[in-house]
Amino acid sequence: MPILERFRLNGRRAFVTGASRGIGRAIGLALAEAGADVALTARNEGRLNALAAEVEALGRRAVVVPLDLGDLEAVGPAIDAAADALGGLSILVNNAGATYRGGFGIDDPAEFDRMFDINLGAVLFGCQAARPHLAAAGAGVIVNIGSIAGTKGAGLYGASKQGVHALTRGFSREYANDGIRVVALAPGQVDTDMTARVRANPAELNTMLHHTAQARVADPSEIAAAVVYLASPAADFVTGTTIAIDGGRDFFARR
Amino acid sequence: MTAPDPFRLDGRRALITGASRGIGRGIAEAYARAGARLALAARTTAGLSEVADSVAKYGTEVHTFGADLGDAEAPTLLVERAAKALGGLDIVVNNAADAGHDGLTLDGYRRLLHLNLRAPVLITQAARPYLLDSEAPVVINVSSVSARLGGAEPYGPLKAALSSYTVGLAREWGKDGIRVVAIAPGVIETEMTAGYTDADWWIGNLAERVALGRNGRVDDIAGVARFLASDAAAYLTGAVIPVDGGWVHQF
């Protein structure tokens, strides 16, 4: 197969969480551009519908699945419904993430639970629910969006993301029996609504840029490009690993 | 008069969770032998009375507390009771955990999230004011080799979360002189791992993949936990120390 053909996703069907904005939106568009049909999930149906129109303009099918991932019991049925609507699933992108205001502490146990449910629980149960669909499709791929906040240790948010990296490693061994690859990306600072609060703080932004080789933040499409690669046959020998896409972030300065 | 032994813990006030058996009990014994005063917690005090009797030979003070640490209020309450009994806290060992054979059910996932991660965070947070008053404060989290390798989901991922928390909190609290470290045990022979250590597939792995070719013993962890709590480790923080017999044969 010509090398660039290996990066194509023609005929693939993907389920993308957190698709209404930021990195998830870019992933939805990139997968469609690479040839995949996509199920787009998030809480905001209006933004999903707008994105679906853009996907259809690219000549691909889009299915909108409104879903609050904080409701873990809803994850499995949503994946099943999307697989029905698309005629199968071969790619799951666990992208949705929740920020956490509590740093390293827990003042509100409900907020802690919700953050962990979205960042780790929904990945756990999403992988389990998608597994039979991906196995049936053959050459299934799960791409989890972790964070360098996990590897560096940045609050309980980072802790949840480090959990995603470990889950990726563990499930890669188990799911290989079904021909499914499980990989993760650990983005650094990306220009999205979710992280705008961090960049609005000049001191924090300067420290961060000071510890990033490229001294800039990423565009969401730079993460999406890696998702296309990992989801494609070009990455057929890649599983279990977490790839940092962070502009050369070295370590967090001690504050 | 010789210089004090930096590996001793004389008079140090230590809270240890999950202390009725396994690694927690081993750490309690090691700390008592090193001269520490103990607050021991477990689900029920019944299991702790035997540990308290056992360490009595070292002549140190021991308090026992029953606490269901999966409960949202229990961790903070435990710290208050322990600190009151000991007159403060110098050492916190977050050891209690559930291996969870039902972690892929919603109830199982939530129980593990609360016991294996929320409880250590709440305990550490409640202990902070006491640690700030201590001359040699340290938090020791018992993580796992599965934090690096995954497995037994969500047990492994939650241990990974605990390791990440350890590294980050060491940075946050370093300026206050509070050390935060973790131990990542391999397979240690305890009740928790009984089903594991007897399994043929593990016995094969043990021979081929673990450098020392044997399972760990509780004392293998307890010795490292004593070192980490002591002044001998005064410059050691933000580290997750593997104590696994050498999982080096990964190729």
Explained architecture:
The complex is a heterodimer of chains A (255) and B (251). Chain A is of the alpha/beta class and 255 residues long. Chain A has one domain: Rossmann fold, CATH 3.40.50.720. Chain A is 46% helix and 14% strand. Chain A has 9 helices and 7 strands. Chain A has a 7-stranded parallel sheet, sandwiched between helices. In chain A, helix 1 packs across helix 9 and helix 3 runs parallel beside helix 4. Chain A is globular and about 50 Å long. The relative contact order of chain A is 0.15. The mean pLDDT of chain A is 95. Chain B is an alpha/beta fold and 251 residues long. Chain B has a single domain, classed as Rossmann fold. Chain B has 9 helices and 7 strands. A 7-stranded parallel sheet of chain B has the order 3-2-1-4-5-6-7, sandwiched between helices. The longest helix of chain B is centred in the middle third of the chain and has 27 residues. The N and C termini of chain B lie far apart (52 Å). The mean pLDDT of chain B is 94. The chains are: A alpha/beta (255), B alpha/beta (251). At the A-B interface, helix 4, helix 5 and helix 6 of A face helix 4, helix 5 and helix 6 of B.
Summarize the structure.
The complex is a heterodimer of chains A (about 260) and B (about 250). By secondary structure, chain A is of the alpha/beta class.
List the helices and strands and how they pair.
The complex is a heterodimer of chains A (255) and B (251).
Chain A: E1 13-17, H1 22-33, E2 37-42, H2 45-57, E3 62-66, H3 75-86, E4 91-94, H4 109-137, E5 141-145, H5 148-152, H6 155-175, E6 181-187, H7 196-199, H8 202-210, H9 220-231, E7 242-245
Helix pairs in contact in A: 1-9, 3-4, 4-6
Chain B: E1 13-17, H1 22-33, E2 37-42, H2 45-55, E3 62-66, H3 74-86, E4 91-94, H4 106-132, E5 138-142, H5 146-149, H6 155-174, E6 179-185, H7 194-197, H8 200-209, H9 218-229, E7 240-243
Parallel strand pairs in B: 1-2, 1-4, 2-3, 4-5, 5-6, 6-7
Helix pairs in contact in B: 1-9, 3-4, 4-6
